Amino acid sequence: MNAIQPSRPPLQPIQKRRVIPRPKRHLRQRSYQVMALESTAKIAVNLAITAVAASALGQLLPYHWLQQEKLREIGTEVKLMEGHVNALQAEFSHNFDPQQAKSIRQQQGYRFDPSQRRVVLMNQERQEDEQTSSP
Length: 135
Known about the structure:
The protein is mainly α.
């Protein structure tokens, strides 16, 4: 079992690879250029987005102001209509009140209760003229 094995060639000293020095300054300068280019591109994109946003805002603001004006007008009309509706509701409740039915009939029919006396108001200016001319 102890067979003869082929002998290895003698170990030769490992040759070190030549390290070629890279110019570090050139690499750093290049990385700075890439970073500057990247930053410039970011700024340009952000400026473009800002310009688009400003343009859109410039177009939307007049529309927004117009809508606000219409909303104010509608609010004013709603307030006027609320007053009108309240007046109509008061008149409705007055006209359909069973306790006031007799007085309502008198107002609308120009008929008076026999126990009531008619009062006729005369023009006060005319009365004053008559009084001043009489003495």
